[in-house]
Specification:
heterotrimer, A alpha/beta (340), B mainly alpha (286), C alpha/beta (257), B: 286 residues, mainly alpha, MetI-like fold, 2 domains, 12 helices, 71% helix, C: 257 residues, alpha/beta, 4-stranded antiparallel β-sheet, 26% strand
Chain lengths: 340, 286, 257
């Protein structure tokens, strides 16, 4: 339903000089509570999509609409208003906080900039109200309010990332973009952050776009999933379905490459030749064809269009229907261990 | 200062010997500059008085540093000189910092056409050898200390602009600055509260290194007659004037030279220590 | 020839009196991959450096014993350690780009290392060629500069170098953490092959328990510089004895639901 859509990205294109980092990506984010994952490896353009949504990089083509309103043409106070509604948490927790500012000041700065701290705090004075707001934000992110007087280097990586989340929440956004929020963290810190996101989703009716290369964190957090390869959508659809019955060879390979702790859950590896390509070196035809274990002649010449392969599911592959019904690369067993 | 304040300072200085040494000496120099006219044994000698009959006396009890070629007490002149060369250096560096930091931050953060315009102007100034540039300006201005200060400042500011611009550009690209933009924080605030504080550390170190350099440049210009004029007790001028007597009356050059050396060293140490202290990642002794 | 044996006993690494890593007992034999698992600050990387004899350059004090086929490595002179490093014990690290001097072509770096260990120019070229092929890279990559190769390719060149030197032990410190998951899968497969076909002894350090579970035969779990549990991988995962191990296992996200 069109009414349900909070952020509508259509045919987004982003270039850095001659390099086309994002080449026609579309995705739809529903109103909260809702989670959608943007999955890909290096060169996929997933981080660039997130930045384009935040208006941190200019778009070369396509449209982005938030609540039905165009986003790409916003400027001035309307852009500022958009930046209250849509926020981002960056991957690099170590460097996304100013090392010279105390945590409380960093959080307070956001509140003051958006006029949320009351008139007394104009000019940077720390009022009781501002202090209370900062304390509330820290508590919500499961942090001790006393950390407000510390500097970033005095906190652990996981704590820094939670401060970054608290900062993003300060403006009460309706959509949160999480760009690889846990890649730089230890596994226990990662678990805490993911639990925090789940809790925030329920408490704040949050919608979020989770950008990640780690398939394992997606189930339980995101109901929809979009797989990117070299700036294009390879396939998209409900998470559970996509992972259980992929319709694209890349998704198959990606899923099979995820290491599993439980021996029973392991799959036979589909090894892709070569390395993930760098954006800008797009081959003719399907961007995945040089590494695809199921490549046929048409793949080398014709770009596969993104087509429906099931209810709510799309895939850009000439052999999508076959993959969906169980076609597997030669050498891989007909049924991968763990498949229903 | 309260009792606890003093003891904290004491602990701080013990833990940071560089700052302590540099700071103490620099403080001493400032103190001397302030009280010089009151404590020097021969105040008139710091000015226009001459005593030809006592010329070129070696260091003695009455004249700790000896006398110069017109009989003036060198000790008084060296101490009084603390009000000349260091003050010139202070103003030169102040002007360079203000101009350099402002332009550098703007060029580094905004990039694009702003950066181009600012840096091309800076490049034009940088293309000239600094001494030559200062010389050129000094010749068209009346020969006094003010002109000297302006002339040297004109040749000094471009280095600071380039220094700050590099740092500011690097800071502007850092994730926390990008995060501020994403959070909708206005540019003015980002510049003042994030880019500026994180861009000035190289300037602090550079300033401390430049104190000696400015004093020497000033002395070169004074030697050529373009800056401080006799009888002003400028250290550089004293060194220049005493050159001819170097092999026989060594004190004429040595004592003012030492004064320059110690001043430059003190600020150098201070600068090094300050740079370490200003890094919030450093664990401070509390 | 009997398989190589690396034996670590009572290894203690400390900085200015503060212990950062303490390993009472660890064995890595030829033909097996032993994992060293832990989060940041657990001391696992320091352990690797200590085994290589490089902890001293980082300013650490090392006591204890590390024996390679019976020969004690701790306390060995720099000259003798250099002969062993690379030649018998090779190491690959998380950031392969750091291991290659960016101003030299990859081939030049590889051949120079080989010749440093006594090979003639012709032998070095032949071995480099063969080694690259065995890691599924085209030897023409040797003509490129490190910046022209991807992370995965550089990591494979680093492994190829270890192969060319005929190293018997490979120490790997988070070699795949910075790689894409599909590339990681290939490198892990490569390591398995080194174990199986060449009988290498591999010590694999990682914070990723899932990778360790898939790759390693035995594992030692480290936390805050101490080894809290160790044993065969199946056993540690199915029946962890230490609370921390349980905590780690619980925190690992699972895809296979």
């Amino acid at each position: 339903m069109a009414d349900d859509i909070l952020l509508d990205v259509r045919d987004l294109r982003v270039s850095f000089g001659p390099v086309r980092a994002v080449d026609g990506v579309s995705l739809a984010i529903s109103r909260g509570p809702f989670g959608i994952a943007l999955v890909g490896e290096s060169g996929s353009g997933k981080t660039t999509v997130g930045r384009a949504i935040l208006r941190l990089v200019p778009a070369a083509g396509g449209t982005i609409a938030f609540d039905g309103q165009d986003v790409l043409g916003l400027r001035g106070p309307r852009l500022r208003a958009y930046r209250r509604a849509v926020q981002i948490v960056f991957q690099d927790a170590d460097n996304s906080l100013d090392p010279r500012m105390r945590i409380g000041t960093t959080l307070g700065e956001v509140l003051i900039a958006h006029g949320l701290a009351g008139r007394g705090a104009l000019g940077g004075r720390v009022t009781a109200r501002l202090a209370a707001q900062v304390a509330a934000l820290l508590s919500e992110a499961a942090l001790d309010p006393a950390l407000a007087s510390r500097y970033p280097h005095q906190l652990s990586g996981g704590q820094r990332q939670r401060v970054a989340i608290a900062r993003a929440l300060a403006v009460s956004p309706r959509l949160l973009v999480l760009d690889e929020p846990t890649s730089a963290l230890d596994v226990t810190a990662q678990a805490r952050i993911l639990a925090l996101v789940r809790r925030l989703r329920d408490e704040r009716q949050l919608a979020y776009l989770l950008i990640t290369h780690n398939l394992a964190i997606i189930p339980g957090l995101c109901e929809q999933m979009v797989v990117l390869y070299l700036g294009r959508v390879a396939e998209s659809g409900p998470t559970g379905e996509l992972l259980a019955r992929p319709a694209h060879p890349y998704t198959l390979a990606l899923r099979s490459a995820v290491p599993e702790v439980d021996a029973a859950a392991r799959r036979s590896r589909i090894l892709l030749p070569g390395d993930t390509p760098q954006a800008g070196s797009t081959p003719p035809g399907c961007p995945f064809h040089p590494r695809c274990p199921l490549v046929i002649d048409v793949c080398r010449t014709t770009v596969p269009p993104l087509q429906a392969v099931g209810p709510g599911r799309q895939a850009a592959c000439h052999r999508a229907a076959e993959v969906l019904s169980g076609l597997r690369p030669p050498g891989a067993p007909a049924q991968l261990a763990g498949e229903p | 200062m309260t009792g606890t304040g003093v003891s904290r300072l004491g602990r701080f200085l013990r833990a940071n010997p560089l700052i302590a040494t540099g700071g103490v000496i620099a403080l001493l120099i400032v103190l001397i500059a302030i009280v010089a006219p009151l404590v020097v044994p021969y105040p008139a000698d710091a000015g226009a008085a001459t005593h030809p009959e006592m010329a070129l006396q070696p260091p003695s009890a009455q004249h700790l540093f000896g006398t110069d070629q017109v009989g003036r007490d060198l000790f008084s002149r060296v101490l009084a000189g603390a009000r000349v060369s260091p003050v010139v250096a202070l103003f030169v560096l102040l002007i360079s910092c203000v101009v350099g930091i402002s332009l550098g931050v703007l060029a580094g953060y905004f990039g694009g056409i702003t950066d181009e315009i600012i840096m091309r102007i800076t490049d034009i100034f940088l293309a000239f050898p600094p001494l030559l540039l200062a010389l050129a300006f000094a010749t068209v201005l009346p020969a006094n200390l003010t002109s000297l200060t302006i002339a040297i400042a004109i040749s000094w500011w471009p280095w600071y602009t380039r220094l700050v611009r590099g740092q500011a550009a690097s800071v502007a690209g850092r994730p926390y600055v990008e995060a501020c933009r994403a959070l909708g924080i206005p540019s003015r605030r980002i510049l003042l509260r994030h880019v500026l504080p994180n861009s000035v550390t190289p300037v602090i170190v550079q300033v401390s290194l430049d104190v000696g350099g400015v004093i020497l440049t000033a002395s070169a210009l004074s030697f050529l007659g373009l800056g401080a004029q006799d009888p002003t007790p400028d250290w550089g001028l004293m060194v220049a004037e005493g050159q001819n007597y170097f092999t026989t009356q060594w004190w004429l050059v040595t004592f003012p030279g030492l004064a320059i050396l110690i001043t430059a060293l003190a600020f150098n140490l201070l600068g090094d220590g300050l740079r370490d202290v200003l890094d919030p990642r450093r664990v401070l002794v509390r | 020839m009997s398989p190589v044996k690396l034996e670590v006993r009572d290894l203690r690494v400390s900085f200015a009196g503060h212990p950062v890593a303490s390993v009472p007992e660890l064995n890595v034999d030829g033909g097996e991959i032993v994992g060293l698992a832990g989060e940041s600050g657990s001391g696992k990387s320091m352990t690797i450096l200590a085994v290589l004899g490089l902890a001293g350059t980082a300013g650490a004090a090392v006591t204890g014993s590390v024996r390679l086929d019976g020969q004690e490595l701790i306390g060995l002179s720099d000259a003798r350690l250099r002969a062993i490093r690379g030649r018998r014990i090779a190491a690959i690290f998380q950031s392969p780009a750091l291991a290659f001097n960016p101003v030299f072509r990859v081939g030049a770096i590889v051949s120079r290392t080989l010749r440093q260990h006594g090979l003639s120019a012709a032998e070095a070229a032949a071995r480099a060629d063969a080694a690259l092929r065995s890691v599924l890279l085209s030897p023409e990559l040797l003509d490129r500069y490190p910046a022209q190769l991807s992370g995965g390719q550089l990591q494979r060149v680093a492994i190829a170098l270890a192969l060319a030197l005929r190293a018997e032990v490979l120490l790997a410190d988070e070699p795949t953490s910075a790689l894409d998951v599909t590339v990681q899968a290939e490198v892990l497969e490569l390591l398995r092959e080194l174990r199986d076909s060449r009988g290498m002894a591999v010590l694999f350090v990682s914070h990723d328990l899932a990778v360790i579970a898939e790759l390693c035969d035995r594992v030692a779990i480290m936390r805050a510089g101490q080894v809290v549990e160790q044993g065969p991988i199946g056993q540690v995962i199915a029946a962890p004895r230490h609370d921390y191990t349980r905590e780690l296992l619980a925190a690992v996200p699972r895809l296979g639901e």
